[in-house]
């Protein structure tokens, strides 16, 4: 079965029609009649199947995927271990509701989360369907456990699109505009953004802490919620020392430190979690995206005394920790371990960084190249300034798309190109994708 998939998909990018092709264009017309215009697709090629780092569209184009569906298919498309686990689970049963009639795989996922998340303290988890839902539950538990209300978040943060998580998210357009009113008791403070603030980690943390103490009051704060590397905000890696200083402050002040690892977790940065790069041990961790090989699953993992402070029945949901998604997660985590994908993420990161940094020498629109492991971005600027260049980002993404490469933009200013390749991408595929990307950057510069 596996080899027939390989031979039918192929490992090389190959464009055989104009993009999007005629079948994709026809589907897009059908879609416009029935799908909300509030959902947009940057590159509307309709996908039929995938394998590793390649997706094949309905017109037979083989597209190289450098986005992994926004950091979800970290272990690649159509992974045999996941296909097998999911197929067996679908055949056995698809749903009972964990609160009605439980099953082993939910417990196994929570055991894995307890073992893999930082720190050797006792931990407990609860499983959900989306990242937003995990973040919402982190806020619920932190408020209940501390008896406090204020939640501190950061400039450029992205935490989701539900009402509470919109409030936690920084960027107005397109996420929040006219969708209010938003949930109260959310306070936003300065993020460490080395390219733009030039501050050391210690100085940036001192600023954020002073904002919290003067504008909120430490004793009112239930939690500090932060992405250890910001995702949608522009792959902003805080200066060294920023996260440890914040974490230390939360511990001193009885505040829950929540790391939102939904995008940065599960091997993406070359560690199980991005906080591992600085030895930070969060009180709670939210995960989703890379966790279940493409199946919808999210988790909140925290210190047992926090997670178990909740009254019976206080957490849950109909679908949370669905057995098919749990089976996929168990197989995904095993695959990450077996194939040593943390090491592979670091290799991929070195290749991308060296390629983009050498390009930066002769292209004036690249202001910054940053990231860890296979979570790397370049921030585009007007030559000779730090003024954001969103036009260049758009034209580079569209150039890549036309060549059959899926690449994604992000950033508060829309001027960041981010790379999130599946970690099973081959060296040849990566070199091919980078040569297309670099040509796109040169054309835009
Ligand atoms: C994607 C994301 C979320 C929201 O997850 P959904 O599954 O889309 O609800 C939250 N936080 C971060 C850091 C994310 O990248």
Structure description:
This protein is α/β, with parallel strands linked by helices and 445 residues long. The protein has two domains: 22-78 and 340-444, Alpha-Beta Complex (Aspartate Aminotransferase, domain 1); 83-338, 3-Layer(aba) Sandwich (Aspartate Aminotransferase, domain 2), CATH 3.40.640. It is 40% helix and 16% strand. It contains 15 helices and 15 strands. The protein has helices spanning 2-9, 22-34, 68-71, 80-92, 104-116, 131-146, 163-168, 194-197, 201-215, 242-252, 304-307, 323-338, 341-362, 390-402, 427-444; strands at 47-51, 54-57, 62-65, 123-128, 150-154, 186-189, 221-226, 256-260, 284-287, 298-303, 366-372, 375-380, 405-406, 408-410, 416-419. Strands 4-10-9-8-7-5-6 form a seven-stranded mixed β-sheet, with helices on both faces. The protein has a four-stranded mixed β-sheet with strand order 1-2-3-13. It has a four-stranded antiparallel β-sheet with strand order 11-12-15-14, covered by helices on one side. A hairpin with a 5-residue loop joins strand 14 (408-410) and strand 15. Helix 14 (390-402) crosses helix 15 (427-444). The chain is globular. The termini are far apart. The model is unreliable at 1-6 (pLDDT under 50).
